Structure prediction request, 171 residues.
Amino acid sequence: MAILPIHYLPDAALKTPTRPVTSITPDIRHLARDMIHTMHAAGGVGLAANQVGQPWQLFVASPDQERGRELVLLNPKIVSRRGRLRLEEGCLSLPGIAAIVTRAARVEVHAMTLDGTACVLEGQDLLARIFQHEIDHLHGLLFVDRLPWLARQRLLRVYHRQRRELSKVAR
Prediction:
C-alpha cells in the first residue's frame, strides 16, 4: 500500500468531473486500497479519486476512522435528500480552512461496491455529509463552491495566503 499525493486547490483535477468505473480491475482495487491508506494517513474521513489525481467515480469513507470498516463506493449517485444540517466542513485538498456548509441531514445513495454489487446506503449526519462532500468532488465541486460568493472569496483569499506562506517556508 502506498500513500498517494493529495492534490490541492488550484489543481485542475479537483475541478474536473470524473468518469464512471466501467470495470472493476486490479488497478481499481489497488487504487481503492491506496486511497484508504492515504485517507487514514492524512487524518481524513473521506477521499475522492480526483483528490489523488485519478479520473474515476470512486471514493472511500470512514466516518469513525476505524481501520477495516471503510466504505468504498463506485459510481455513487444521491437519489434522495431530507432535512438540513449546518456544520463546519473542511477538506484534505484545502488544508487549514473550514467553513459552515448547509447540507442535507439524510441522503440515500445508490452505488456499486468493489465486488461489483449494487448497493443502496442511507447516511445521516456525518455520513450524509461525507457522501455529499465526496460526490461533489466527483462532479468537480469543492465545499467552498457551496458557500455564498463573498464568504467563498474571503475563505479562498485566506487559503491562498496560507499556501504562499507555506511555499516560502519550504524554500
Notes: Residues 12-170 form a domain with the Peptide Deformylase fold (CATH 3.90.45.10). The chain has a mean pLDDT of 96. The CA atoms of residues 40 and 66 lie 9 Å apart. Helices lie at 26-42, 126-138, 149-170.
